[in-house]
Amino acid sequence: MVPRVRDGDTLLARGIQHKLTERERAALHKCQLFMEAFRIIRPTMPMQHAYAFLLVAAEEGRGVQEYAERAGVTQSVMTRILLALGPRGQKGAPGYGLVQQATDTVDLRKHQTFLTAKGKALIREIVRLTRSDHQNAPKLRAQSRSFDGSGEVASGFGARSVVSSTDRVGAKARFG
After folding, report:
1. Domains, the chain, with CATH or none
2. What is the distance between the alpha carbons of residues 86 and 66, in angstroms, rounded to a whole number?
3. Which parts of the chain have pLDDT scores under 70?
4. CB 123 within 8 A of CB 57
């Protein structure tokens, strides 16, 4: 049975909240940091794009059809996703710049997908975040900067400017 909430009454005030253990809290914090790495690339990055990026990172050099099968989507959907992850999206719109495609040397009809330097920097940051303890992990924000509104990263990963945790809008990682 779902507890009824009256005006001015909260489940928290009534003691009906789920209390997380420190371990659960730390695990959730790492998940948030992991997601934050993608949000800094682009705050509205769809989950499908992040998932496809991870597929490419785990097995570089595969074709669109192989990634589509692994993701459980059609080849045309994966083609659009990989385009968005590349330097230019559909209709020439700016892409994420995380992957690049090259023609297969054996079968010229096929294209292989690889991480760019920016994509490799993102993977290194994700690995660092997931390996670090939850006290030291927020370095990601210290490595972010404001962007010009276009959603694109103009410079490389390196210069450090502190962005407060309340200033999420306009923060972007320096992957390049």
Report:
1. 22-135 (1.10.10.10)
2. 17
3. 1-17, 133-176
4. yes
